[in-house]
Amino acid sequence: MRVNGWRMSSATDSTADQTTHHLHHDWAEKELASNQIVQAIAEYENEESQNLPPLRDSINPKALDTAFESDGRPVSKAGCITFSYYGYTVLVQSTGQILIKKN
Question: Compositional bias of type Low complexity: which residue ranges (predicted)?
């Protein structure tokens, strides 16, 4: 599935019987991971993204967008960032994998 140009898919987490949404972010692209996450959650909730609270209430969007890049290029170090936003737990990995799960 594509939402606003982003590849998205959903998979069922059998341990909690909830859906975990899987997105992929390309750190070399100009699109921001922070925008991708807000747009995806808005889509899951059938809301307009501007109706959701600011992401900065949960995490610094600029820090998130630049955590795994250097001078506009992806970094090779492994890592992940986890935070909560609008009733979802969001896990962002340095590989570009983003997991979004309803709390």
Answer: 9-18
Extents of the domains making up the chain? 2-102
Give the Cα separation of 58 and 4 in Å (integer): 23
Q: State the residue for tokens 């600011």.
A: 54
CA-based diameter of the chain, in Å? Answer: 41
The residue assigned the tokens 């899951």 is 44
Using only C-alpha atoms, what is the Rg of the chain?
Answer: 13
Q: Which residues contact 78 (CB under 8 A, 6 or more apart)?
A: 94, 95
Q: How far apart are CA 67 and CA 93, in angstroms?
A: 10
* Each residue's pLDDT tens digit, 61-81: 999 998 887 666 666 778 999
Q: Is the dihedral of CA 14, 85, 9, 51 positive or negative?
A: positive
Beta strands (DSSP E) in 14-79 are: 18-24, 69-70, 73-74
Extract the tokens encoding 77.
């170090």
